[in-house]
């Protein structure tokens, strides 16, 4: 028997089995479930998305439990852990995460599962409370109001163009003209502005001679300062 064989045998015998009793498994999974449900309710309360994804929120709870079970399995056997790493490396996720907050909750669920699976439930609980506090405080920080998009379609004339500019400037002096399209005597304007008098602005513009349509759009996109 060579030295390499002796080394492999001693390594496998020393680290291949780590006793994890049923109580340890139940405690880890229990705290993983509690934290997964906690993350579930935090996501439901804190998310501001118009289209709330219930399936994604449910998957956070399952992800916490599954991650905890994987960590428990890895601790029980080095051989199994190496095989699991190889098996998980072939998994590919093709669902795009479009909202950065979804990514935060996804990593939160995975981290909670890892920490609970490692038997450090106290750290998982304290870190979850800290994350909640940080998200809540930062959510209260005031931000600038998102700009509105004003879309105007009218028959082009110098007088109509001048009146449109006057009405918009009276409502909001620092507007920004995004696009101006003139096609066969038809003028299409897209203007970015912030105003609290949207109803008055659209009514005044629609009353102008030659203006065929006025639309004022709001969005929940990023705010530029």
Topology:
Blueprint: H1 3-15, H2 22-46, H3 54-76, H4 78-88, H5 100-117, H6 121-140, E1 148-155, H7 158-171, E2 176-183, E3 186-193, H8 198-206, E4 211-217
Helix pairs in contact: 2-3, 2-5, 2-6, 3-4, 3-5, 5-6
Q: What structural class do the secondary elements suggest?
A: alpha+beta
Total domain count? 2
Silhouette: elongated
Low-confidence stretches: none
What order do the strands of the largest sheet run in, or round the barrel if closed?
Answer: 2-3-1-4
- DSSP summary, beta strand count: 4
The Cα radius of gyration reads 29 Å
Q: How far from one another are the termini?
A: 72 Å
Instruction: Calculate the mean pLDDT score and round it.
Output: 78
Along the chain, the helix and strand elements come as: HHHHHHEHEEHE
Please, how many helices? 8
What fraction strand? 5-15%
The share of residues in helices is: 55-70%
Major sheet attributes:
4 strands, antiparallel
């Amino acid at each position: 028997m060579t030295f390499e064989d002796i080394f492999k045998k001693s390594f496998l015998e020393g680290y291949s089995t780590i006793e994890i009793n049923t109580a340890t498994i139940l405690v880890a999974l229990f705290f993983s479930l509690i934290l997964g449900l906690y993350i579930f309710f935090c996501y439901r309360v804190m998310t501001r998305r118009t289209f709330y994804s219930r399936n994604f929120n449910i998957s956070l709870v399952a992800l916490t439990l599954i991650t905890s079970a994987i960590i428990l399995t890895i601790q029980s056997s080095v051989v199994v852990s190496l095989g699991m790493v190889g098996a998980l490396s072939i998994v590919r996720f093709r669902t795009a995460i479009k909202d950065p907050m979804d990514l935060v909750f996804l990593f939160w669920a995975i981290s909670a599962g890892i920490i609970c699976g490692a038997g450090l439930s106290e750290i998982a609980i304290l870190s979850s409370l800290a994350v909640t506090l940080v998200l809540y405080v930062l959510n209260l920080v005031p931000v600038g109001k998102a700009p509105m998009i004003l879309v105007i379609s009218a028959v082009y004339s110098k007088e109509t163009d001048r009146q449109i500019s006057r009405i918009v400037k009276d409502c909001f002096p620092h507007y920004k003209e995004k696009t101006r399209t003139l096609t066969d005597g038809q003028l299409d304007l897209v203007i970015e502005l912030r105003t609290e008098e949207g109803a008055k602005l659209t009514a005044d513009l629609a009353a102008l001679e030659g203006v065929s349509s006025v639309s004022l759009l709001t969005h929940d996109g990023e705010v530029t300062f």
